[in-house]
Specification:
The protein is an all-alpha fold and about 100 residues long. Helix content is about 95%, strand content about 0%. The chain contains 2 helices and no strands.
Length: about 100
């Protein structure tokens, strides 16, 4: 083979090896990035789940208090409405 061809082949081999090293590094970086992205979402979703777990008793207490207040208001409305005469009662009084 011609000396120029040998030099070109040797240079091509060196560039290919350097390119291969770069590609291996890029693949390793992509794997680490995927791992940390998964870890990031795990921490975020896990934090949400844990915070709900610890706050749930307080939420249930607030919901219970709201239900008690709503029940009290309903009872007060029923007792208030029973004391007020309706239109039918007023018509009967007027007919007499």
């Amino acid at each position: 083979m011609d000396e120029d061809v040998k030099v070109l082949l040797k240079r091509n081999l060196e560039l290919t090896e350097a390119n291969h090293k770069l590609l291996i590094g890029m693949r390793r970086s992509a794997r680490w990035a995927s791992f940390f992205r998964l870890l990031y979402w795990f921490v975020i979703l896990g934090g949400i789940a844990l915070s709900y777990y610890f706050i749930q008793p307080y939420i249930n207490a607030v919901i219970g208090a709201y239900d008690n207040i709503q029940g009290s208001i309903s009872q007060n409305e029923e007792s208030a409405n029973s004391g007020i005469p309706g239109i039918g009662d007023l018509l009967q009084v007027l007919k007499r």
